[in-house]
Amino acid sequence: MSSPPAVIVGVDGSDSATAAALWAVDEAASRDVPVRLVHAVTPSPDSSQITADALDHAGTIVHSAVIAVERSGKPVKVEAQVLTGPPGEILRREADGAAMLCVGSMGISHGGIGHVGSVAVAVAHSAVCPVAIVHAQGRTHSRKDWVVAEVTDSQAGEIAMVRGIEEALLRSAALRVVAARRSRYPDIHDHHAVTSMNRTVKSDWERRLAPWREKHPDLNAEVVALAGSALNYFARNQDMIALAIVPHERAAEIADLLGPRSTASSQDICFDILICEPHRLL
C-alpha cells in the first residue's frame, strides 16, 4: 500500500540536502502534508548486509535533518525513514504519489553549488511528481527575488505557469513568465516579424494570466516573450532569480546542463530549480 502524500526530501548529510529539507517546509505547510525525510543506505559491494556502523551513521544524518526542520519553527509534521537501496532508485520509488520531491544539488562527497549530483540528475529525468533541486548557498531570497517560469504552448507549459503562480504567491516573490519560442530561419533577419510574434505570444499569455490576477490581486506577474532559449534568459538574469520552473519535457536538458559532465559555465548558476510533473498527471 502506498504512503500518504508528503513532500519527500532526500537527505545525505550534505549542506544542500539540509537546504532542501528547509526549502520543503513551506511547500509541505502550504499543502497541509508532512515533510518526509528519506535516507538511503546502500550495502557495501562485498556484502549484501548493512553494517551497524552504517545504520548508526544513517540515524545521525536523519536526526540532524529532523532537528534542522524543527528549528525552522514552522507548523509542519516531520517524518523520517532510513531505506535500503541505491539512492536514485529509492527516491524514484518514494516520489510515486508524493506531492513533491526535493533534493540537494550536490551530494556529501562534493559540496558547494554548481554541478548537480548524479542522484539529482537521475530523479529529475524520471520522477512523476514535481522535483526541486536546491542549492546550499546562493543569494538570500528576498521580496525582490524572482520566480521565473518557462512556458511553452502546450499543456506542460500551462502546468509550469500554474506552478510559477503557486511558488510566487508562497514566497511573496515577483513572477516572470518566460514564453520562449524557436525562431523560423527567415525570422532571424526580420526584426519586424520577431517583434510582431513576440507581441502576439505575450498577449496570449497575458490572457491566460488574467483570471489568476483577478483571483490574487497581490500577484506580481510579468510576461516576457522572446525568440530562442529560455536558458539564455536565466543566464542573463540569474542575479535576480530565486527559483526557475521548467516543464517536465525539459527535465533531461536541464539535468544534462547542470550534471557532472556539464560545462564549467553552469557552475555559476545559483538559483533553485523546480522541474514540473508530467502533464498527464495534472
From TrEMBL:
Entry-linked InterPro entries: Rossmann-like_a/b/a_fold, Universal_stress_UspA, UspA
Organism: Mycolicibacterium iranicum
Domain of life: Bacteria
UspA domain mapped to chain residues: 7-135
Name of the protein in its database record: Universal stress protein UspA
SUPFAM superfamilies: Adenine nucleotide alpha hydrolases-like (SSF52402)
Family per similarity comment: Belongs to the universal stress protein A family.
Gene3D superfamilies tied to this protein: HUPs
First and last residue of the signal peptide: none
